[in-house]
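Structure tokens please, single chain.
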Amino acid sequence: MNDLYESTRQGWSDMWHGATVAEELATMYYPRSQAIMQAYLPWLPRDAPVLEAGSGLGGPVIALRAAGHDKVIGMDYVESALQAARRHTPGLPLLTGDIHAIPCADASIGAYLSFGVLEHFEQGMGPALAEARRVLRPGGILVLTIPFPNLVQRLVVLRRRLQGRDALTHDDFYESAWGRRALVGTVTEAGFELCELRPTSHDFTLWGLGGPFRAPGYFRSSPLAEALGGALTRLAPWAFNYTTLLIARKPA
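Here you go.
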């Protein structure tokens, strides 16, 4: 593993150390998170384990299990985050593991969830997708959320380049954004069949601008951002979305 891979791991450790499980769990009930969840919930099986790969403090795992999906388990390579999640919710099913070497048998998982994780690896998402495909059963579901290079993000990248800074590395923390063609191409090349692709979280793009678009709370958008984000969802869906939700299937 290279230095950037390890510094990104440390970045996640520092991030989770500065947050609480309660804060992360609260974000699961923000309107943007609920919209994403309602989009992918119908795709999740109930007769096989569902793995959230890169579960951090466990917010999605806790929320999904509370919603009745009791086969959801989490996995992360930051042990301190897993320990915090277990203290908050004793008995929460969590694994210590890297998304490039998942401690699960071949074809043992019904669905693989990845929320804002695969964009953080300099080698791209191909190796992680190959590992996801290995553990998914035939017909298994892949659910990803990935940052999209919207207009605001492109301006930020341009500014960093004009300053002579690396556009994808933020204080030794790697993060990339994926356009539709590149994202779909990479996922299909990894052996998946695309089921759904939709732009999401327009209000969070506005949140990134600060000021009146932020509300008190952990990464919470203001009512103004949510209202404008809803309008942008209809009027400019692929210009201001913060993330893309992709749902795909491993061929049966």
